[in-house]
UniProtKB/TrEMBL annotation:
Zn(2+) binds at residues 16, 18, 196, 277. The keyword DNA-binding does not apply. Gene3D superfamilies: Metal-dependent hydrolases (3.20.20.140). Catalyzes the hydrolytic deamination of adenine to hypoxanthine. Plays an important role in the purine salvage pathway and in nitrogen catabolism. This is Adenine deaminase. Residues 11-326 form the Adenosine deaminase domain. Binds 1 zinc ion per subunit. It comes from the Bacteria. The active site is at residue 199.
Length: 326
């Protein structure tokens, strides 16, 4: 925990963080140099001047250029290792981490390299930081569903160690219904299933993710509030929503932090947790996200405890792993 936290925080799980979104600008420039990658940025300062986003797509455009510095298994291990160290310092005891498989395989990097590199660092995370982890392979929803099917089939055939699948990238115009078969294959293989929905897209996409993909958890889901019947269902079924406050402000999904629906979501009894999404892009790791909402809304220790407990309850932990954090 850092001194920026005004309220002491119990053990917390981070459930919504994209590995590619933890690439810090200095690491991007350094790794580009090492790997001989020609980025469009003349300098660290030039890169740092790119982080003013107008919407989700403007951020994704930058993210997808920068992630190209990752080439070999050691690069994937290095970025994972750095995230785990930083998250541990922020008080995270359990992390469920997304990676975007197609971002790498489309550049000719084998899934074996990506997953092998990440996994080696996750194993070290347990010994170095006592951090337990899950790895969630995410698909870009703006690519054809057949592409996601092929990627999943390969990972399953090769027996590569992932714990679940997710759905991300540009949301509007790419409803969950496109991915029914992919999710069926994943569930049949015993994988956990989550999806981004209701970030920029409508509440209807949250319904589709639940009804058609049978997701166990919804990433973001903030636009669910526009549909009272959906809210009632999410509360009744204790569907976890992984909310990312700094991300929502920086991508202008909400106007300002004062307008963020997190306090309302807590009041409604939704199972919400606080997460960092892409911490190197949106102004901070989990501690900064907690700090932002605690400061903005004057959350008391009870509310912070509730958010931390929600994160543990929302995690894909077995009873022993959960008990360790409660
Ligand atoms: C993402 Cl939709 C979305 N949000 C945040 N980070 C991402 N990385 C890839 N897709
Ligand atoms: Zn996300």
């Amino acid at each position: 925990m850092t001194d920026r936290l005004r309220v002491a925080r119990p053990p917390v799980a981070e459930l919504h963080v994209h590995l590619e979104g933890t690439l810090e600008p200095a690491f991007i420039i350094e790794t580009a140099g090492e790997n001989g990658i020609d980025l469009p940025w003349r300098s660290l300062e030039h890169l740092e001047a790119q982080y003013d986003f107008t919407d989700l797509q403007s951020f994704l455009d930058l993210l997808y250029v920068n992630l190209e510095v990752l080439r070999d298994a050691d690069d994937f291990a290095a970025v994972t290792h750095r995230y785990l160290a930083r998250a541990s310092a922020a008080g995270v005891r359990h992390a469920e981490i997304f990676f975007d498989i197609q971002a790498h395989t489309r550049r000719g990097i084998p899934a074996e390299t990506v997953i092998g590199g990440i996994r080696s660092a996750l194993d070290r995370g347990l010994t170095d930081h006592g951090m337990t982890t899950k790895l969630i392979m995410s698909f870009w929803r703006d690519l054809p569903p057949g592409d996601a099917m092929d990627a999943l089939a390969h990972v399953l055939d090769a027996g590569l160690p992932i714990d679940g699948i997710g759905l991300d990238s540009a949301e509007v115009g790419y409803p969950p219904s496109l991915f029914v078969e992919v999710y069926r294959m994943a569930r049949d293989a015993g994988l956990h299933v989550v999806a981004h929905a209701g970030e920029e897209g409508p509440a209807e996409y949250v319904r589709e993710a639940l009804d058609l993909l049978h997701v166990e958890r919804v990433d973001h889901g903030i636009r669910s509030l526009e549909d009272p019947d959906l809210v009632e269902r999410l509360v009744r079924d204790r569907v976890p929503l992984t909310v990312c406050p700094l991300s929502n402000v920086r991508l202008r999904t909400v106007d300002t932090m004062a307008d963020h629906p997190l306090p309302r979501m807590l009041e409604l009894g939704l199972l919400v947790s606080v997460n960092s999404d892409d911490p190197a892009y949106f102004g901070g790791y989990l501690d900064a996200n907690f700090d932002a909402v605690v400061t903005q809304f004057g959350l008391d220790a009870g509310a912070v405890e509730q958010l931390a407990r929600n994160s543990v309850d929302s995690a894909f932990l077995d009873p022993v792993g959960r008990a360790r954090l409660h």
